[in-house]
Amino acid sequence: MTHDCTLADTNMAGTNIQITHHVTLCLFIYVVVCNCISSFTTASAQRINILPTDPAVCTGDNITFTCSLETTTNAKNQIKPVLSSESLVASTSTHLVDYGTAEITLFNVSGKHDHVAVCCILDNTDEICDMLTEASSILNVYPLPIEVQNFSCLVENYDRSLNCSWSYGKIYERFKEPEVTLLWKSGDSPWMHCPYLDIENGICFWENTEPDFTFREIQMKVSLEQTCGKSAESHFLTDTSKIVKPNPVVEFSSNVKSSTCIEIKWQSADKTYPKRHTVKVSGRWKDDWVSYKS
């Protein structure tokens, strides 16, 4: 019995040894597999940054985008910037700063660059560059503003209202329009904003309840500022005493006194300010005009 027990102990010991080796082997395989998965995750989940993000750029500008890896530890591939439109590559320059940083510069930006995506991807990948790419930046190109043209003003009946208008000299696309402001002042007074500004039609309107604009020189400046930071400013000096449109005369009547005399009467709509009236009379069978100044 003793011998059997010894054999049993020996067998049991052998079994223990086999189990121990089996567990050790499993643990070793588990550690190796885990280490492999961990390394793959570290290499493939590199966070990529791009600056600037969705910038506003004026036509004719140059702009540089910078791609960078948040960390280069265990990085397997270099980073590279690419464009969503291959046709624009000729107007760019790419520069590798170091292993984890690269730059791309777009020269003389124009309307064809508008809404182009710049992407940062890892080298040796088949990732396509578009606005859905994780590290992407969309270029927003704005036309340069120019000074306004055909600026003119008119005063209605001396002090009733002042109306100034202008044209923009070019057509700005929808959502690409510059911000427009009109400031005005008289003498040493501070600059004041246009009280009623119609940007779309290029009109500024003053009523007689606004600060007095009658019979004086007024300085005006119209500013156009684009989202990309460029601006254009136009300056004008207007003498409101010389741009008055009086109200039409009232109680106008005519009376034929004789074959050679016609009497014409009228009343001025406003007698506060002196006016000069011009009467033009034409004969029924003649084309010549005869002018009379009162």
Any chance you could write out the topology, listing elements then pairs?
Elements: H1 2-44, E1 48-51, E2 56-58, E3 63-69, E4 79-83, E5 92-98, E6 101-106, E7 117-122, E8 136-138, E9 140-142, E10 149-156, E11 161-167, E12 179-185, E13 192-193, E14 196-198, E15 203-207, E16 217-225, E17 231-239, E18 244-245, E19 250-258, E20 261-267, E21 278-282, E22 289-293
Parallel strand pairs: 2-9, 10-18
Antiparallel strand pairs: 1-3, 3-6, 4-7, 5-6, 7-8, 10-11, 11-15, 12-13, 12-16, 14-15, 16-17, 19-20, 21-22
How would you describe what is shown here?
This protein is mostly beta strands and about 290 residues long. The protein has 3 domains: about 50-140, Immunoglobulin-like (Sandwich), CATH 2.60.40; about 150-245, Sandwich (Immunoglobulin-like), CATH 2.60.40; about 250-294, no CATH class. The protein is built from 1 helix and 22 strands. Strands 14-15-11-10-18 form a 5-stranded mixed β-sheet, with no helix packed on it. The chain has a 4-stranded antiparallel β-sheet with strand order 1-3-6-5, with no helix packed on it. Mean pLDDT is about 80; it is low at about 1-45.
